[in-house]
Automatic annotation (TrEMBL):
EC numbers: 3.5.1.88
Phosphoprotein listed as a keyword: no
Residue numbers binding Fe cation: C89, H131, H135
Record protein name field: Peptide deformylase
Length: 185
C-alpha cells in the first residue's frame, strides 16, 4: 500500500499554485496510485497532489462508486445553478461548513497516460471537482466562505487537536523525489 501523510492547514504547499504536469511517466502513475490509495484510506471523496506535498496539477476522486483521476484539469460550467451544502477537507480534519459551489461542472484534462479525458459532474461530483481544482490553485474551501462562516471555520481550526498555532507546520519530504515534481515549495 502507498498511503502517504496528508499535509494539514498551515503547510505552505497548500497555498501554492501547482505546476502543470509535463511528463506522463512512471512517476506520475505512482503519484496517481498514491493519491487514490491515500484518499480511500482516509475515506475522502477527493485528494489533490499538493495535499501530499507534490506541486503538480493532478487529483484523484472517489464519488458515488466512480473512482478516477484527472491531470491538468480545466473547468467549465454549463449553467449558473448553484448548490449549498456541507464541505470538508482532509487537510482541515473535522471541519465541515456549508459552502456554495456550482451544481454542474465539466472538467477537461488528461489521464495518467496523457490521453485526453472529460469528466462531467453534478451534485457531489461537481463539488469534489471544484474543491480539488481549488487545491491545485492554492485555494482552500474556507476561502469560499462568507465572513461569518470563515470566522466559524477558523474558530474550529484553532480549537482542533491537530492545530498548533505556536508551532510552524511540519514539512515532510515527499516520497516522490524532487525530479519533475518541483518539490521544496
Amino acid at each position: 500500500m502507498t498511503v502517504q501523510p496528508i499535509r494539514l492547514f498551515g503547510d505552505p504547499v497548500l497555498r501554492t499554485p501547482a505546476d502543470p504536469v509535463a511528463d506522463f511517466d512512471k512517476e506520475l502513475r505512482k503519484l496517481v496510485k498514491d493519491l487514490t490509495e491515500t484518499m480511500q484510506d482516509e475515506g475522502g471523496a477527493g485528494l489533490a497532489a499538493p495535499q501530499l506535498g507534490v506541486g503538480l496539477r493532478v487529483f484523484a476522486f472517489d464519488v458515488d462508486d466512480v473512482v478516477g483521476h484527472i491531470v491538468n484539469p480545466v473547468l467549465s460550467f454549463p449553467d449558473d445553478e448553484e448548490q449549498d451544502g456541507p464541505e470538508g477537507c482532509l487537510s482541515i480534519p473535522g471541519v465541515y461548513i456549508d459552502t456554495k459551489r456550482r451544481q454542474h461542472v465539466v472538467a477537461s484534462g488528461f489521464n495518467q497516460h496523457g490521453d485526453p479525458i472529460q469528466l462531467v459532474g453534478t451534485g457531489l461530483m461537481a463539488r469534489c471537482v471544484q474543491h480539488e481544482t481549488d487545491h491545485l490553485d492554492g485555494v482552500l474551501f474556507i476561502d469560499r466562505l462568507d465572513a461569518a462562516a470563515r470566522k466559524d471555520a477558523m474558530k474550529q481550526i484553532r480549537s482542533a487537536e491537530w492545530y498548533d498555532a505556536g508551532k510552524p507546520p511540519t514539512i515532510k519530504e515527499s516520497p516522490h523525489g524532487r525530479g519533475i515534481f518541483g518539490l521544496g515549495r
